Amino acid sequence: MEKRVLVTGFEPFGGETVNPALEVVEALAGRVLDVDGSDPVQIVAARIPTVFGTSIAVLEKEIERISPFVVLCVGQAGGRHHITPERVAINVDDARIPDNAGNAPVDAPVVPGGTVGYLSDLPIKRMVRAMQDVGIPSSVSNSAGTFVCNHLFYGLMHLLKTKYTRVRGGFIHIPFLPSQVVGRELPSMNLTDMVRGLEVCVRVAVEHTLDLPLSGGKEC
Amino acid sequence: MEKRVLVTGFEPFGGETVNPALEVVEALAGRVLDVDGSDPVQIVAARIPTVFGTSIAVLEKEIERISPFVVLCVGQAGGRHHITPERVAINVDDARIPDNAGNAPVDAPVVPGGTVGYLSDLPIKRMVRAMQDVGIPSSVSNSAGTFVCNHLFYGLMHLLKTKYTRVRGGFIHIPFLPSQVVGRELPSMNLTDMVRGLEVCVRVAVEHTLDLPLSGGKEC
Amino acid sequence: MEKRVLVTGFEPFGGETVNPALEVVEALAGRVLDVDGSDPVQIVAARIPTVFGTSIAVLEKEIERISPFVVLCVGQAGGRHHITPERVAINVDDARIPDNAGNAPVDAPVVPGGTVGYLSDLPIKRMVRAMQDVGIPSSVSNSAGTFVCNHLFYGLMHLLKTKYTRVRGGFIHIPFLPSQVVGRELPSMNLTDMVRGLEVCVRVAVEHTLDLPLSGGKEC
Amino acid sequence: MEKRVLVTGFEPFGGETVNPALEVVEALAGRVLDVDGSDPVQIVAARIPTVFGTSIAVLEKEIERISPFVVLCVGQAGGRHHITPERVAINVDDARIPDNAGNAPVDAPVVPGGTVGYLSDLPIKRMVRAMQDVGIPSSVSNSAGTFVCNHLFYGLMHLLKTKYTRVRGGFIHIPFLPSQVVGRELPSMNLTDMVRGLEVCVRVAVEHTLDLPLSGGKEC
């Protein structure tokens, strides 16, 4: 029987008209990966509103509907050079800009009374290494920020640790698309490369529960 | 009776011959701050080895010896533009370069079985605002990395939450000195400005337990 | 009768195993552009050694052999975010690293007694605008440096102004490929996007002798 | 008899309320440098409007009034990390933003019919080395841009080459002050360090007509 991976992408925010995360996720939707010594794995995509609270509610509905064994949420990190699997989600909402419903919480918890942080379940160093092996610029990130991306990541990990304990999950930030930075001195990555990189990540997440003993991320 | 603030700076590491944190801390040593409606506060400085494990042990000895009511640890973040009060310490040691004793742990906990993260006790947004008010480039950081700086920050917060529960504390990263980047395209900050910025931070930490309702740090 | 555009790319240098300029130029080789109200235009490619002196000699041989009406030289500018048509070549060779034959001139002229600078013949603002219109990050550059790229650009313009006066020409710098920066925090651009951008530039160079009245490049 | 060096700084522009060049120049005004084997040298400062055309006219009046043997013009280069002696002025006015009188020329010559470029008269590599020797981040720049800074630099060199042929001159760009970037992720340099760096440059310009055989500036 086929297994399913849920990959999610956010709606555009912050004045952008596209969100590379959504573009990547829609390009991956429906792909079936053949996995050694296992049933094939289907990628199912979901679109997540860039809204505090609602984003987690929509994610949970999709988890209920799709019954994935791995969940990989993807978000835009404008200004980054690399595809960056995130190491840790923190229990902080702190918005410099409003979300798509106009909310801008300051120093609020994602989950009141929740633990300060959750580490990703996914083998992030292995993902980075596998992307680098196919020529995709990639590195570990030690902060998913404090906007809706970190909010969803924290919400995901809280759901997985408290309710869907057999499901593994994590979060990946990706750069702007070239079309988003045509007149700005900012890094970007081509959609084809990002789709390829994310497919590599899904495959690694599906095939490996243990990570490689490699250091990763900035030392400070 | 005089109250004491302990400020700490690391020994040089990573091929550098100075550590701006140590320079700043030694410049602040012995200063006495007059505080409205309170006894004056003396700044006591300590030098911390840039070594996993040992750094926390030395810090605890200094806390025992000095009996501070606030502890502010300072570290070098080469490549940053601003003085950056840190928001969160995470329970991860992951070293891209060896520490000064040759240790390079990968994905190890700072405290086995410890919580994933601790938030700073200090009013970090108030510190940023106060530094900006006197013309010092400053912003909140959402990651202290995974090297000895984060290690000490996590170790400090663990001590304060489990043993020295009346003491408040936090961590601040500072840029390179100009002399460290003479031939490199990297940002730096003058020692005078960093000393002034850190004195502002100590004063804010001493005078305020509550933070301002301002957002801070990169959204991702 | 068919007209020809000569596009040139350098051999890899500075420790790199590929040169994106050469990759782009070889991908464009042989393409024929249909141009409104004119004969079709064929793109002919040439490979240029990254060597002071020799590079200009090889370029002149190719001009003699191919008889182009437009010459567009392309070089790698590692660290740039954009495809950057160059505004000006200067009569200075000043090498921080040796060229591929081990030469490292300091403050030497490209052409002894030559004028200090030559402006590009090509409509560089129109090129930038046309690339931006198809979603390619692009801007004008005011310096081609002082290594072999500027050397060839100056040599080209000197040839065009003193000998091949009916030929127009210029120089374009392009970013690293993603595969060149997998483990480095540097910008890059996908080969497909660079090929598309350069084809746009060739078309603009062929169709327009006058530039648009738009400002371009950093003010300092 | 005392010799005089004219140093100039621009009025604030582009929405800034200060110009570090003006601050530095006013701090240097009146200083007298003792020079080995020569009469002492006095630094005379002048304030230059950030306006195309007028800036050069004011500069010429000051040269007439002061009779300097060296002229060093200083300008703000927001976003740079280093104090950067400029290598070359180009005969191009191309303004992305209006000057302080509302002018925004596009691709216009500074001097109609003038040569494309002038190289600095000053020993720029020696200046860089001397600043680095006292711990000031410094490097050669290959472009002064195309705004009023380059305009004045070109105008200065044109005056020196065509009219005041016994006077030597050049241009230096300096970073933002820390107070200009408090809430922005941009590099800056302390006023004290910039004053010290510029005094070093004046001394080098006074004492040396020949440069050191060192490479300098980005290769592209």
How do the strands and helices of this protein lay out in sequence?
4 copies of one chain form a homotetramer.
Chain A: E1 3-10, H1 20-28, E2 32-33, E3 41-48, H2 54-66, E4 70-76, E5 84-85, E6 88-90, E7 117-119, H3 124-133, H4 148-162, E8 168-174, H5 191-207
Parallel strand pairs in A: 1-3, 1-4, 4-8
Antiparallel strand pairs in A: 2-3, 5-8, 6-7
Helix pairs in contact in A: 1-5, 2-4, 3-5
Active site (chains A, B, C, D): 86, 149, 173
Subunit structure (chains A, B, C, D): Homotetramer.
Enzyme class (chains A, B, C, D): hydrolase
Keywords:
homotetramer; 220 residues; alpha/beta; Aminopeptidase; two-stranded antiparallel ribbon; 5 helices; 8 strands; globular
Order of neighbouring strands in the sheet with most strands of chain A: 2-3-1-4-8-5
Which CATH architecture of chain A would you pick? 3-Layer(aba) Sandwich
Helices of chain A, by number, come to 5
Low-confidence stretches of chain A: none
What is the oligomer described by this structure? homotetramer
The CATH topology of chain A is given as Aminopeptidase
- Classify the beta-strand content of chain A into a percent band: 15-25%
Radius of gyration of chain A: 16 Å
CATH superfamily caption of chain A: Peptidase C15, pyroglutamyl peptidase I-like
